[in-house]
Amino acid sequence: MKDLFGKAILDYQQGNYTEDIVTSTSISEEDALPIPYLFRSYGEMPKLEQTALKLSKGNVLDVGCGAGSHSLYLQNERNLEVTAIDVSGAAIEACKLRGITNAEQIDVMEFTGQFDTILLLMNGAGMCGKLNRIGNFLNHLKTILTDNGQILVDSSDIIYMFDEDEDGGKWIPSENDYYGELLYNVSYKGEHEEPFNWLYIDYNTLQNAAHASGLKCELILEGEHYDYLAKLYK
Fold it and tell me: Sorted alphabetically, which keywords does the UniProt record give (predicted)?
C-alpha cells in the first residue's frame, strides 16, 4: 500500500495541502474527499459521530483513527483515556503532531488490551472488506472489550445505489457475494492506490453477525441518508 490517505493527512497537518483525495468504487464515479473534512471539529461532525462521542466512556480505543479528530475531542474535551490506532504510519504521525498522547500504527486484529469503548466510526466496520470476515473481526473485538464495554459503529445500507428491475426489486451484480462489498479506489497527487475491498453493512446484517459472535446489537440512531449508529455489547 502506498498509504495515500496517510500522506494526504500528513500533508495537511504539515501545511502542504494543495489538493484533495479522489475516491471511486466499483459502483460509483470519482468523487473528491476534502482533506479538511478529516480534521473537522466536534461541531462540524455529523449527528451520528457526535452521538457516538457523547456515549463514549472509560478507556477508549479509536480504531482506524485517521487524522484523529474523534480521539482529540475525547482526550481534550471529555478527558477520557484514548488510544488511537491506524494501519497508516503517516496518519499516526499526524495524530501525534496534533497532540494525541496515545497513538500507534497497528492493525486492530493484532492489538490487545481491554477497553470500555471501541469506536468504529466513518464506516469503521468497512475495514473487514468482505462480509465473510466480519465474524472473525467481531470475535477479536470481543476479546479486547471489557465485560460492561461497548462497540460503537456506524455504517450505511447502500441498497439505494443499485438500480431497480421491472418488478421493483434491486439489480445486484452476480459477482457480489453481498451488495455492500465494494472495490475502493484512491488517488492523490497523481498516485494511485491498489484497489482494495471495503464493506458497507446494513443494520440487520450487522445484527445477525453480532448475534453469531455472542454480542447484543442495538440501533442507536438513524442518519438522514441510509446511515446508522449501532451499539454492540456482551
Answer: Methyltransferase, Transferase
C-alpha dist (Å) from residue 69 to 77, 99, 198, 202: 11, 11, 22, 25
Q: Residues 103, 65: contact at Cβ < 8 Å?
A: yes
pLDDT at 168: 64
Residue 217 corresponds to which cell in the numbers above?
Answer: 446489537
Please, are residues 157 and 126 in contact by the beta-carbon 8 Å criterion?
A: no
Strands 145-156 and 115-120: what pairing? parallel
Element (H, E) at 207: helix 203-212
- CATH number of the domain where residue 157 is located: 3.40.50.150
**Average per-residue pLDDT for the chain:** 95
| CB-based burial, 24-63: b 16+ in 10 Å, e otherwise | bbeeeeeeeeebeebbbebeebbebbbbbbeebeebbbbb
Rg of the chain over Cα atoms, rounded to whole angstroms, equals 17
Q: How many domains does the chain have?
A: 1
68/84 Cα distance (integer angstroms): 7
Report the alpha-carbon distance of residue 175 to residue 161 in Å, rounded: 16
Tell me what pLDDT residue 161 has. Answer: 85
Range of the domain at 79: 4-233
Grid cell, residue 27, equals 459502483
Any residues with CB less than 8 A from the CB of 6 and at least 6 apart, and which?
A: 86, 88, 89, 90, 91, 92, 93, 94
At 164 the pLDDT is 72
Q: Model confidence at 159, in pLDDT bands (50, 70, 90)?
A: confident
